[in-house]
Amino acid sequence: MEAANLIVSAVPHLRLSADAGDVEAQALLAGVLLDYVDESALPLAFEYAVAAARAGHPAAQRTLGFMYLHGRGVETSAFQAEVLFAAAARAGDPYGAFNLAVMHVQGTVRFPDQAECVRLLRQAVDGGVGQAAAVLGDQLSAVDEDAEALTWYVYAAERGHAGSMFAAACWYRDGIGTSVDHVQAVRWYLTMLDRGNGDGIHEAIQLAKQGMPDEQIRAAGRLAGKEAEAELLITTVRRT
User: Fold this and answer.
1) Whose CA, among 147, 156, 214, 226, lies 20 to 30 Å from 70?
2) How does pLDDT run across 91-150, given as a tens digit for each residue?
3) What pTM did the predictor assign?
4) Are 46 and 73 spatial neighbours (Cβ–Cβ below 8 Å)?
């Protein structure tokens, strides 16, 4: 509890407000303690999360759901996590919606149909959860809604999701959900380097070897902000 007390002592008015029953303060402290303090803070985080969740605070419901889902300071309970995430989602919390959708994707929760999962993911994306766009792309792809799936992969890729960059690149390369576009394909393969991920380089080389004009490779490099890498790609391909 020493670490927990140190962090709450840094914001004494917040602690006083939480202890006096301020729901917003309770929800905020629960999240801070869970995210930024070690295991010693979990009992206090749980106490504040329970109090705020019972008062209907969606962020606290989501925090408490996370604790139940992962057994943080409480015995693991997927059922309790589902109930809490669902309550948070109904109250408009985008992360609660995302967490509940992911439980469905992972098979922990079963919805009557796929439409509910897609609806929750749309809610999450609309609420600013960028990662939800990648999962939404996967779910739409699974039901052959490829054109819309690609738009969400691109949306997530533009926000730095490396897996979506790779998916978008491969789909542009193969013409899935769109017409074949090698410039966009190489663009996203090269952009993956920004995330420290070089998995797309082999595919970019293979595309370039298939007769992709130098100017198209340079165009892809400009879109990716990787002009030097595009020139290196051209040099590498032309030498082989």
Assistant:
1) 156
2) 999 999 999 999 999 999 999 888 999 999 999 999 999 999 999 999 999 999 999 999
3) 0.85
4) yes
Calpha distance 136→115 (Å, rounded): 11
Angstrom distance (rounded) from CA 218 to CA 183 = 9
In three-state form (DSSP H/G/I as H, E/B as E, the rest C), the secondary structure along 159-188 is: CCCHHHHHHHHHHHHHCCCCCCCHHHHHHH
d(CA 51, CA 153): 38
The domains of the chain are located at 181-240
- Other beta carbons less than 10 A from residue 216's beta carbon: 17
DSSP of 43-80: HHHHHHHHHHHHTT-HHHHHHHHHHHHHTSSS---HHH
What six digits make up the tokens of 177? Answer: 């959900």
> In sequence order, which ranges of the chain are alpha helices (DSSP H)?
2-9, 12-19, 23-36, 42-54, 58-70, 78-90, 94-105, 114-126, 130-142, 146-158, 162-174, 182-191, 201-209, 214-224, 227-239
Given a contact cutoff of 8 angstroms between Cβ atoms, the answer to whether 42 and 73 are in contact is yes
By CB atoms closer than 10 A (0-12, 13-18, 19+), residue 230 is buried
pLDDT of 12 higher than 80: no
* Mean predicted lDDT score pLDDT of the chain: 93
